[in-house]
Amino acid sequence: MDIKSEKFQVSGLVQGVGFRYQTCHQGLKFGLVGYAKNLNNGDVEVVVSGDPKNVELFAEWIKTGPRNAWVENVVRESLTPTRFDGFEIL
């Protein structure tokens, strides 16, 4: 199976609103693995791996995120395909 890995750095109101939890839930819903973690600057870093089509669906979702969040900007970066054991909240 072909896998694609992407890193997203999400800024806006994304800490303290359940963003990482909802991101994990959405990633698993799309059959993806990876992690979501808070950064010291107030952003959230998300890395996902999985089917390229599902990574694209996730990329569309993360532009708005969960309803309690306010996404101001998303920086997207392709990564070397990486396998993870599930989806972690760091």
TrEMBL record:
The keyword Acyltransferase does not apply. One of its GO terms (molecular function) is acylphosphatase activity. The active site is at residues 20, 38. Its EC number is 3.6.1.7. SUPFAM superfamilies: Acylphosphatase/BLUF domain-like. It is an enzyme of class 3 (hydrolase). Keywords: Hydrolase. It catalyses: an acyl phosphate + H2O = a carboxylate + phosphate + H(+). It comes from the Bacteria. Residues 5-90 form the Acylphosphatase-like domain. Belongs to the acylphosphatase family. NCBIfam families: PRK14426.1 (NF011000). This is Acylphosphatase. It comes from Vibrio xiamenensis.
